[in-house]
Amino acid sequence: MGRQIRVPAAVLAASLLLAAAGCTSNGTDGAGGADPGASPPPARAGSPSAGDGKAGGGETLPGVADVGAARAQLAGLTVAPVGTMAGYSRSGFTHWAEQGGTCNTREAVLQRDGTDVVQDAGCRAVSGRWRSLYDGVVVTDASTMDIDHVVPLAEGWRSGAAAWDAPRRRAFANDLALPQLLAVTAASNRSKGDQSPDLWQPPDRSSWCLYGRAWTTVKSAYGLTVTEAEKKMLTTMLDTCAA
């Protein structure tokens, strides 16, 4: 949703294990792991910290850079105007990919981001507890949760993904190795739409640090561009980490 490292070997390996499969998304444009045929993100300076990134409420995201690495990544991003939406289609970013058995990426994220999650024989979450990072709302019904693409698919398109092949777009839309996917309330997901941080910020300001780090990590890993206004707001978000 929004517009607009050397990646560790373990991250690349994890990305390559994901298999492709198209499933209906639950969300707007922030509704993603890679499949065996996907092109992994290029190696870039400023790798993520070894552990998961943690927010004040205990939320975790895989592969997120710590604040120091995120600042270095942000400084290294190419600044460019907003790209065109010509040719864009969500169907060009196939999701959700199979994750083994009857599970897919959506269910994998719900399992990862929730507490005491119980899944049925079809891998669907039938009970559990989720705290939505963006607005702090606690949810116990998985059907009311969306899986947000931290860097929205349309924003990815505008900032470089228009030039990618289909496997790379599929990897971007299903990336479980980087902080690209997050279970959030449908209301906050749809409020965000495909807007970048200069146009939309999580209403729960305590999430800005993690959100800014996650957005920067993903854009850096995939070599996507940022606008001047986007970079400025990301700097503001990273400045909240010290507090």
Describe this entry's structure for a reader.
With 243 residues, the protein is α+β, with helices and mostly antiparallel strands. It has eight helices and seven strands. A hairpin with a 6-residue loop joins β4 and β5. It starts with 8 loop residues before the first helix and ends with a helix. The relative contact order is 0.25.
Describe this structure in a few short sentences.
The protein has 243 residues and is α+β, with helices and mostly antiparallel strands.
Q: Percent range for helical residues?
A: 25-40%
What sort of overall outline do the alpha carbons produce when their principal axes are compared?
Answer: globular
Q: List unreliable stretches of 5+ residues.
A: 1-27, 32-58
Estimate the strand proportion. 5-15%
Tally of separate helices: 8
N to C succession of SSEs? HEEHHEEEEHHEHHH
The main β sheet shows up as:
3 strands, antiparallel
Helix/strand-derived category reads: alpha+beta
For the CA atoms, what is the radius of gyration? Answer: 16 Å
Number of strands: 7
Q: How far do the termini sit from each other?
A: 27 Å
Mean pLDDT over the full residue set:
82
| Main sheet strand line-up | 3-4-5
Produce the secondary structure layout:
Layout: H1 9-16, E1 53-54, E2 60-61, H2 67-76, H3 105-113, E3 115-119, E4 125-131, E5 138-139, E6 145-149, H4 153-158, H5 166-173, E7 181-185, H6 186-192, H7 208-221, H8 228-239
Antiparallel strand pairs: 1-2, 3-4, 4-5, 6-7
Helix pairs in contact: 2-7, 2-8, 7-8
